Amino acid sequence: MLLQAPPAPARALDGTRPGPRGGRGGRPDEHLARLTSAPALLVGLVVVTLLAAGPLQGMDEAAHGHWARELTPGLQPFIQHVLDPIAGQAVCLPVLAVVAATLSWRHRTWRPLWCAAMAELAFYGGVGLLKVVLARPAPTTDDADLFDGGLRQLGWSGISFPSGHAAEAVLIYGTAVYLVGRWTNASARTMSLLRLAVGLVALNAAAVSYYLGWHWISDLVGGLLVGGLLLRLLVEADRRGWRWRSRRAVVARHL
């Protein structure tokens, strides 16, 4: 397939297009970009991980409960089997695959599919690796200490931090929205609605996991942060790839 450039200048991850002289549109967008930059998200993840290793454990244990079973037992099946899977692989991965495949076919390029594959690889290689290394037991064990669990010792209940569902909600759905913004002429309003949808899905993933009693609070915060960090790194890698190909194409035309 031929590699074609996107139909419009690439939006920033927050949806804004580059302004004059390479700047962004407005001051609120600049603040948002800084708060959700890779360095800021990395610092946040490190801080939350360190706090989860000790200072936050008392809060995690005090705030934990099987709230769905205790408060709304009649709604638990709906929460568990309808709301919770929205951020799971069975739902979010097909959504990303359809978006990427459609854009790849329309523009006759593998680039969106490559980006989708990298997002999935980042999830397993980034979030999965952190889970295995940190080996935090799930709340079902009544033990919030890092390194006390492990896949071999406790199975899936031994790798609770960071939350995979929270990370997927940001990374996988966020990648789909990024691809729409980069490869279509979607309006600013449409992009704002799509970003809002990703935020709501991420909030749903965290709230549902907590309400069902499946994660400590710090697991969920860590999941959101690592999902955002991996998304930022993926977007930057994709943009660098385009800049490199653009420079190579310019050089080739002058040979």
UniProtKB/TrEMBL annotation:
Transmembrane helix found in the keyword field: yes
Entry-linked Pfam families: PAP2 (PF01569)
Phosphatidic acid phosphatase type 2/haloperoxidase domain residues: 113-235
Stored InterPro entries: PAP2/HPO (IPR000326), PAP2/HPO_sf (IPR036938)
Keywords: Membrane, Transmembrane, Transmembrane helix
TM regions (residue ranges): 32-53, 86-105, 112-134, 154-181, 193-211, 217-235
Region (Disordered): 1-29
Any coiled-coil regions, as ranges: none
Name of protein: Undecaprenyl-diphosphatase
Organism: Krasilnikoviella flava
Taxonomy of the source species: Bacteria, Bacillati, Actinomycetota, Actinomycetes, Micrococcales
